């Protein structure tokens, strides 16, 4: 082996088959192999092999540490000059091709496993939606149920009520944020749409703004409140506040929903989940702009109301929790697969084991 510079680089170019595209900003360091000629945008670096096998170069770039620099915004940034200066030991061309062929075969197996797990994700999503639909419909059929007029939830039991959200819940938007409030007195933590996801809240990144005493009752969230995203890609996503931060308030990007009848807020949360899945909010809004679920829209939606909502919600919540645990296990398996795949690439391109036998590398 001999140390050599392995690639020529440009920041924006037509890239030929056999080149590698390296994320320069955003997906920094992510490497993709070019299988057909294309135009590279300025957020990637085109790496062209010099005197080595192109597939081997791709795996080598995927397996070595690429030199990164910090930009003025402290965001990791790769430069063409830095990557072009990389010098590594490379084997003979014959050995490069042997390593590349070995990795192509092995990585295809890992990728097939990943595709199978993607199918598992889709199956869990379908099962979850089917469970929610069955609960919200009361398992009613056209022969024994009451037509709703909704294509996505056509029938509910004949003895169920159907009424507007405002008849069973109180919904209110949060406080508008501006620069004065962000820096004023009486600072307190608040929730925004970035903190709310389906069934769960992420409080790892909470901001603060001014909530003077006269506003605290109006904008405070209490345990048991449902928080619903008002707009953006996560429109209608909802989760129940558990009181983990006290006191806590909410921004105008969220609706706070409280029950004022015998219907649990989780019932509305699951209704929103199914409605979003079925495209209800896209159909009701202007899809050419950022989708919004206004307070007026939310309050006027008509929903089915069972006489035993608490029992039905408790049973459905157990199912949803079990599905969440399964997703967590799949995510852990995916992370382990990605880790093992990367370890395999590193071991192969650094000569830690002989690819003709596949022995010698500890990937644990």
UniProtKB/TrEMBL annotation:
Q: Where is the Type I restriction modification DNA specificity domain?
A: 6-105
Q: Which UniProt keywords apply?
A: DNA-binding, Restriction system
Q: Record's Pfam families?
A: Methylase_S
**Where are the membrane-spanning stretches?**
none
The record's listing under CDD domains reads: RMtype1_S_Eco933I-TRD2-CR2_like (cd17253)
Assembly with partners or alone: The methyltransferase is composed of M and S polypeptides.
Q: Which family does it belong to?
A: Belongs to the type-I restriction system S methylase family.
The protein depicted here goes by the name: Type I restriction modification DNA specificity domain-containing protein
């Amino acid at each position: 082996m001999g140390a050599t510079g392995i690639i020529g680089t440009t920041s924006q170019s037509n890239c030929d088959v056999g080149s590698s595209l390296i994320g320069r900003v955003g997906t920094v360091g992510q490497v993709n192999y070019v299988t057909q000629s294309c135009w590279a945008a300025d957020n990637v670096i085109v790496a062209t092999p010099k005197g080595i096998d192109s597939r081997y170069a791709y795996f080598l770039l995927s397996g070595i540490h690429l030199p990164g620099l910090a930009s003025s915004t402290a965001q990791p940034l790769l430069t063409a000059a830095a990557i072009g200066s990389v010098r590594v030991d490379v084997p003979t061309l014959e050995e490069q091709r042997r390593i590349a062929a070995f990795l192509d075969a092995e990585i295809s197996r890992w990728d097939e496993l990943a595709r199978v797990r993607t199918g598992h994700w889709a199956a869990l999503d379908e099962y979850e939606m089917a469970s929610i639909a069955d609960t919200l419909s009361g398992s009613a059929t056209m022969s024994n149920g009451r037509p709703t007029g909704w294509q996505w939830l056509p029938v509910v039991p004949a003895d169920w009520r159907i009424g507007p959200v405002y008849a069973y819940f109180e919904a209110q938007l949060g406080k508008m944020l501006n620069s004065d409030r962000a820096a004023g007195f009486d600072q307190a933590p608040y929730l925004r749409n970035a903190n709310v996801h389906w069934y769960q809240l992420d409080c790892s990144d909470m901001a603060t703004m001014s909530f003077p005493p006269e506003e605290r009752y109006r904008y405070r969230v209490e345990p048991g409140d449902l928080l619903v995203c008002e707009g953006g890609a996560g429109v209608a996503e909802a989760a129940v506040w558990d009181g983990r931060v006290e006191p806590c308030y909410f921004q105008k990007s969220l609706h706070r929903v409280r029950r004022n009848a015998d219907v649990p807020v989780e019932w509305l949360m699951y209704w929103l989940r199914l409605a979003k899945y079925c495209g209800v909010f896209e159909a009701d809004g202007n899809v050419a702009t950022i989708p919004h679920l206004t307070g007026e829209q939310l309050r006027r939606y008509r929903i089915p109301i069972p006489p035993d909502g608490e029992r039905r919600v408790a049973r459905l919540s157990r199912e949803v929790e079990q599905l969440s645990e399964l997703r967590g296990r799949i995510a852990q398996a995916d992370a382990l697969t990605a880790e093992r795949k990367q370890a395999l690439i590193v071991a192969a391109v650094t000569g830690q084991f002989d690819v003709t036998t596949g022995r010698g590398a500890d990937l644990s």
